[in-house]
Each structure stands twice: as C-alpha cells, then as structure tokens.
Amino acid sequence: MEKVEALEQWRDSELFDLKEKTVLEYVEAITYTDRQVDNVLMSRLREYFNEDEVVELTGLIAFQNLSSKFNSALDLPAQGFCRVPNTEGDGNK
C-alpha cells in the first residue's frame, strides 16, 4: 500500500526501482496526450522486457486507459480501489 500512496511522487520516491520507474514513465507516455513514446524510452523498457512482454504491458495500460474513459463518459462512480485527488475548487484543474 505504501507504493500506491507514493505513486504521485514516483519519480522522486526511493520505493520504486529503475524497472518500475521505467514502466511508470512508459505509462505516462502512453496515457498523456502531450507525451510520446520515443526510441530512448523504448530502449530502456527493452532492458527489462522482451517483445511479448512489451506488447502485454502496452495492452494492459491501454485497457486501463479505455476503462477510465469509458467509466468517465458514463459517469460511473469509483469503486474505491484507488484514491482520486480532489480537484474541485482548488485551482489544480
């Protein structure tokens, strides 16, 4: 649970090793539209995963993104599996 709570600061956290940080960087590159998976990131990812594993990891990330968008579009409430930051009224939108 400690790692889950530290996810917002994963880049600076000592809880995550280099493999985990590489995966989290990949997750962000896939998830955020202002980012992109470049050759450098893909090379670093391949230090830890073979081709099949990269495809599987990419599929899992894409599925989670699809689920998030699907649930949001249908205004489905969270099931309590993760902490959602409160962005209402705090100017961090």
Strand fraction equals under 5%
- Stretches where pLDDT is under 50 for at least 5 consecutive residues are 89-93
- How many strand elements? 0
Mean pLDDT: 86
Give the number of domains: 1
Radius of gyration (CA) equals: 15 Å
> What is the assembly state of the chains in this entry?
single chain
Secondary-structure class = mainly alpha
Largest sheet: none
Q: Tell me the distance between the termini.
A: 26 Å
The proportion of residues forming helix, as a percent range, comes to 40-55%
Query: From N to C, what is the helix and strand string?
Result: HHHH
By DSSP (H or I, 4+ residues per run), the number of helices equals 4
The global form is globular
Quick tags:
mainly alpha; globular
List the helices and strands and how they pair.
Layout: H1 2-6, H2 18-31, H3 39-46, H4 51-73
Helix pairs in contact: 2-3
Question: What can you tell me about this protein's structure?
Answer:
The chain is mainly α and 93 residues long. The chain has one domain. The protein is 54% helix and 0% strand. The protein has helices at residues 2-6, 18-31, 39-46, 51-73. The longest helix has 23 residues, at 51-73. The protein is globular, with a radius of gyration of 15 Å. The relative contact order is 0.10. The model is unreliable at 89-93 (pLDDT under 50).
